[in-house]
Amino acid sequence: MSEPIVEFRHITKKFPGIIANDDVSLTINKGEIFAVLGENGAGKSTLVSMLFGTYEPDGGEILIRGKKERIYSPRYASSLSIGMVHQHFRLVSNFSVAENIILGLEPERKLFGFIPYVDIEKANHDIAELSERYGLKINPEDVIENLNVASCQRVEILKMLYREAEILIFDEPTAVLTPQEIESFLDIVRSLRENGKTIILITHKLAEIKAAADRCAILNRGKLITVLDVESTSADEMARLMVGHDISFRTEKKPAVFGDVILDVQNMSVKSRTGLDAVKDVSFQIHAGEVFAVAGVSGNGQNELADSIAGLCPCSSGKITINGHDITRASVRERIEAGIAYIPEDRHNVGLVLDFTLRDNLPLRQYYTPKFSHKGVISRSSFVEYNRTLEKEYDIRSSQGGATIMRSMSGGNQQKAIIAREIDMQTPLIMFMQPTRGLDIGAVMNVRKQIIAERNRGAAVLLISLDLDEIIDCADTIAVIFNGRINKISPAEKISVDEIGLYMMGVKTA
Amino acid sequence: MIDMIIIDGLSFALPLFIMAVGGIYSEKSGITNLALEGFQGFGAFTGSVAVVYLTGIFGSTSNVPYYAGFIFAVIGGGLFALIHALLCIKFKADQVISGVVMNILAMAMTSFMTKSINASFFGNSANKFMLGASARITVPYLSDIPLAGAIFRDIYPFEILIVLLAVIMWYVLYKTKFGMRLRACGDNPHSVDAAGVNVYAVRTMAVFISGCLSGIAGMSFAYSISANFSPDIYLGYGYLSIAALIFGNWSILPSLAACLIFGFARSGGSAVINELGLPSSYNDLVRILPYVLTMLLLVFFSRHNHSPRALGHIYDKGQR
Q1: So what's the ipTM on this one?
Q2: Beta-sheet strands, E only, within B140-280
Q3: CB-defined contacts A:B, below 8 A
Q4: Checking phi first, is residue B108 left (phi over 0); if not, alpha (psi -120 to 50) or beta?
Q5: pTM, 2 dp
Q6: Out of B177, B196, B309, whose CB is closest to A75?
Q7: What is the per-residue pLDDT across A167-190, written as a single tens digit (0 to 9) for each?
Q8: Which CATH number fits domain B2-130+152-301: 1.10.3470, 3.10.450, 3.30.30, 1.10.287?
Q9: How far A351 CA lies from chain B's nearest CA (Å)?
């Protein structure tokens, strides 16, 4: 129907130890929305990074508008009118929207005809006009640090449009958006296509591809599996091709059997490190055998909520009891002994000592107990023993067994080590904070199975996640947190995804 | 007495201030700069060498050595700062360690070179270059205003230079595209890189500028407080200006306020000692006033001030 704008020909890219892209050839046409689908580590980011000049291919060639190009830097990519929105936004947090957009291409005027200055008024005006033209609502004078994720994304899009990019690349654009924000993002993408732009969408979410993309390339372990027409292919078929085998996206779980109340949080408020009220007057209970999942957009008080139950930051008011014991003022160790296990969001800084070995990380919660030390002297042999047991039981893989330095292990195995350490304590309450962030789909399913297994054993599980699929998949009870308040607590089967989304954005309050 | 406090206070505060502005440039671009102390000393050294050399040519009545001294201090400070830039930016060294090393290096190198130059060119083994105190200017009319007139009385020419320069530096930092990019580098260098601007170049320039401005400060101290160049120039003024820029929350005007507080604390203390007729050894006590003040201010300001987000982070293009 139309002319090719980007052509990859036999692209190969190797990193030490892995082949990220293996002889990938595909063609992207002008004016289409082209999706690149694959699991984590399938090589999709690497592939487009070569188009944007972050990497150069080891073999093969790239053609832009029919002409062979050596794209050696992002700057050169820009000159070919290729723009990219990275997963982590590249914005200057204390600059205004306009300042961020014009950075590097600042319009200038001259004071008294010879002293140059940046013409911020012209920039504000131009950007207001540009955002109007593409229907991207934004105030050019807002400062980035006061904006939410969806607005920051619009700034990134405007940055590309200001540079008159024709080929727009999005790396996992919807990972951090609410369902409603995803809807409006897809609208934006469609309107960009109306304006003749070519869009490349990297994602592992099938629903979006079905909703917006024209064609879709599927990568698996660096190889191009196929390029298919989205319209005529089912989502199940795409999933099967992406993973390479049939997969069930739903975790099997038997009906919940609730026991006694394990965790009881009453009217808890927590201040953030900057002194603002991060959690406001929150009350909830979790029973034995219940997965209580908290949904919400990042930064609405989830970290503070979990940290204050775990004892990492004090709550300013309210009461926390576990199994009837008041632990509101208890130390972290007292809480562990009262029965709290915690899988923190930041596994590198909070969850692990990265420069310790695997063997030394596993007993971090219990090293002082008689099991691991005798009269204050640590027993190395018990560490070795414990490491052996957990490695086998939880399938933790490492290059040198217990002697492996944590830092050198893969994210999935680091997380396995944390989960093993926490679950093995067999506590009545276990908290999972973003447990599958950054893991590939196999590891994700594994973690979710363990969450369910813990619940089946009779533990109370608190799951806090930004991933709605995960919440829907695991939860027995869903709570939605917005701006520090829990706006809704509902049995999982009685609330729809859309409804959760509305609570997440504070459009609806209970 | 008030007059003296104002006159001495300003002549101490302004060099401190221009050095702090240099520090702001470096730190706003994301490079921690503990090396201001070394930069000012090295700048003063090169400037003083030029003064001594040129005085031999033009004679002691000429103004040329005075102004040339400042120009060479700027060049010397700037070039010396490039070593810090090289270590921190090109070789990705730890910026704190590099800064401390720069200070030690400056002190050792200039002491050694002062002695060597004196020995081989002037035939003495003194560890100092005599400069003489700078001339002073009084602005007519303005200086007759009661009280505030003291601001315009007995000023060193370098004070005027510093004020003019500070205005220019403010304009460059907040109004020009170079300034905008520099500030962006200190918050999120990735965004600058993505915008097609060379982060390393901007940061190198920022560190260079901090060296140039520190050189002016060092030369000013050499011309006012000590009337010579000797290793005594390393009295910790560089650290004091770092404290000032931190209290000033990495902004130029508030840093000026901090410098003025330090300056007046020092001159005020001296004046009180004089007034009370205490022995001059008490002057040493007064010299610690700015530092005591620093400790006190730290208690109040540390909590509310925010350093540039990317300050001290090593920027590696390939890393994401």
Answers
A1: 0.86
A2: 228-229
A3: 63
A4: alpha
A5: 0.79
A6: B196
A7: 999 988 887 787 788 888 999 999
A8: 1.10.3470
A9: 22
